[in-house]
Amino acid sequence: MAIIKIDKTSCKGCDICYAVCPKKIFVRSQNRNQYGTNMPEVVNPENCTYCTMCERMCPDGAILVERGEIIEDED
Amino acid sequence: MNSLFEEYIRKEALPTLFCPGCGNGIVQQAAIRAIDKLGIRENTALVSGIGCSSWIPCYINMDVMHTIHGRALAFATGLKLAQPDKNVMVFTGDGDCLAIGGNHFIHAAGRNIDITVIMINNYIYGMTGGQKSPTTPMNAVTKTSPFGSIDYPLDGCALANTLGASYVARWTTAHPIQLEKSIKEGIETKGFSYIEVLAQCPVQGGKNVYGEKEPAAILRKYRDMAKEGTVSLGVLKSEKTKEEYIERLRKKETL
User: Fold this and answer.
1) Which residues in chain B are closer than 8 Å to A52, comparing Cβ atoms?
2) CB–CB contact A16 B215 (8 Å)
3) Which of B4, B19, B219 sits opposite A16 (nearest CB)?
């Protein structure tokens, strides 16, 4: 499962990440960043396909996508 | 924070002065990724002039020269002649490169000196408050053209192509992977490489220039424009055999 970290000090609340994610795993939240605008929140990170488009398209480099534990099938 | 930003950005200078949704950060990240993949961090110098886009290298923890308005290419030419082993990259905007620095651009491209120019074209003067720039599209309402612009926009890629640059490409901020590949090719090409990036300025440009206000909507519009073919995107010219300025200079020295 992907671990997606959003940096509170870097995020400026430009809403680009909502549009570029093909799986729509970012949703608006009530959390405020240091600019006072709303930050995105991650829901259903297991849908992430590691395309890292959010990481590339974030103008402030606030998003970090890490590969979490890979659960392998026994077969 | 992004792991590459963690490694390359001067954290004491944060936050950046870019407005929320500005395209400059996307170009900055593509350039950092290209430099990181080529492994040329110690051997690269970044030069910039004045403007929003010229602040891009100032946040990168590398050799940076922030110079006077429009003269970034003149400074970069001097730097390249003094230290021919260094890779020189120039970050410049549409006003900096084509308006006040137009003459320097013409001569640097004509000489075909080994510099990689990344021109961030947001169709407007962002830093000074939204005046008309040479690339502003027809009928766009700006602060200095309140009834709509009546000038034909200037095409920087066609100009660089005509003047004989080795590598000419155009991408938008909606194509970060292709942009990174183009910057890599531009650095590797011996000769003048001109990469134009269509970026968004949601604060000063907005609805009057792009037809959309939100940054994500402008990006979507750029992607649609690429699909419809209203702007010519991609690598427009790649001529790797053309002789470069410093090679020609060395030939004269050996005579």
Assistant:
1) none
2) yes
3) B219
This prediction has a pTM of 0.91
Model confidence pLDDT, tens digit, residues B213-252: 888 899 998 889 888 888 888 899 888 888 888 888 888 8
Q: Which residues of B touch A62 (CB under 8 A)?
A: 1-2
Cβ-Cβ contacts under 8 Å for B17 (sequence gap 6 or more): B52, B55
- CATH fold of A2-67: Alpha-Beta Plaits (3.30.70)
Distance CA B9, CA A65 (A): 18
Sorted by where each starts, the structural domains of chain B and their CATH numbers stand as: 3-253 (3.40.50.970)
Inspect the interface and report whether the beta carbons of A56 and B3 lie closer than 8 Å: no
What are the pLDDT digits (tens) for A7-47? 888 888 888 888 888 888 988 888 888 888 888 888 888 88
Please state the domain extents for chain A. Answer: 2-67
Contact between residue B168 and residue B91 where contact means Cβ atoms under 8 Å apart: no
Q: Which of B18, B21, B30 sits opposite A16 (nearest CB)?
A: B21
- Complex prediction ipTM: 0.87
Rounded-to-integer distance, Cα B34 and Cα B1, Å: 19
